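[Q] Does anyone have a clean structure-token version of this?
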Amino acid sequence: MKTYLSLLVLCCHTLIYGQLPELHATVDMPFDFGTEVQQKWKQREVLLDAIEKGTKNWDNLSVAEQSLFEKYDETYSSMWATEGDGCSWYCGAGAYEVQTSSALKASSKITYATQNLTDFSYQTAWVEGVDGDGIGEYIDVRFKAEHPRVTTIRIANGYVKSKKAWKNNSRVKSLKMYVNQVPYALLHLKDVYALQSFTLPAPLGHADRSDFEKLKEKGDWSIRFEILSVYKGLKYEDTVISELFFDGLDVHCLSGGTLITMEDATVKTIESLKTGDCIRSYNMETQQYEASEVLEIATATHEHLIDIVFSNQKRIRCTSDHPFLSVSNTWSSYTPLKTQQEYHLSKVVPLTEGSSLLTEEGPLQINRILPVVTPEITYTIVRLKKNHTFLANGVITRIENPKSHKHIMNPSQETTE
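[A] Here you go.
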């Protein structure tokens, strides 16, 4: 009964009032793939090559060179990449199936196929394949039951590989969004040359993730995006979307066996932790430890983990963007720019060999950081009743994404749970 509660409420609202909730896009990042930017990326490639050959190193970069990497993140393979090679939601999210109602036939060497929507490249695009503006054409995305939950939809609207191509082709003005074939919301995009996003009112996906094997037995779920209206192109009627991708919960995790400090100073492995348990949390403002109740736990199969080995030979295995509190009371991670983005933190410093982290027993230095090549089932605390921190193997770390919880309803209200 609880499974489709929010969808039933939404459907009743639609039947009674004759309208769907309306979501308006926010602008994430303006696009610029012009000549000057291309030159900057070439400079960055030359600099990376010099670092790889040993003629340069990260410690002696000039201010201008540091600024180059701050603007053009070193984890990105090219200026067309939507995601860097560092850890992201997609490291743990896994694959999902995408189908479209139509696609324009290839022209010479340029394709407009469905797969261009999810190739993580701004250089390619999906173009609907019917006469006219493509009103009524749609994109279907199907997720496995165990897929991490979605909280954000990101769209590169139009043919963004150049400003000229973007103006010449039609762009989506509004989409009708369905969840499991039931109308969910109207999505309104701006007519801007920029990456846009929608933050959903509640996470989509299965919330009860405490038993990963049982989670896999739950039903698959889907999202459909149907074109309702468009911004007209100057030259072509074809409506274009260059990229469609997501962000969400359940992937910034710790490996099984990680010990979580409880309120009474005993420890539990993170995989045996349950909602309602009281753990020890660190209050960043008072710098005191306090008891806090666990409200939500998540699990996922994750790739690209790292092993952090400390001077006392203790270890933590985690995703590379997982933040830990440094001795300077600043958050740190192996991929700081990604952590800053994913956790909505104003500052994250690099976690390197020689860094010192804050623990219950004082500072603890990192001796080595090693890559983990095999995928593992991982776990994380998503919500606490108080504070945003907990102790993992004695080290102060952070719950998954505290600032996003202002958008998150009670799990019983979530769409597929």
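[Q] Thanks! Anything notable?
[A] Residues 35-53 form the longest helix (19 residues).
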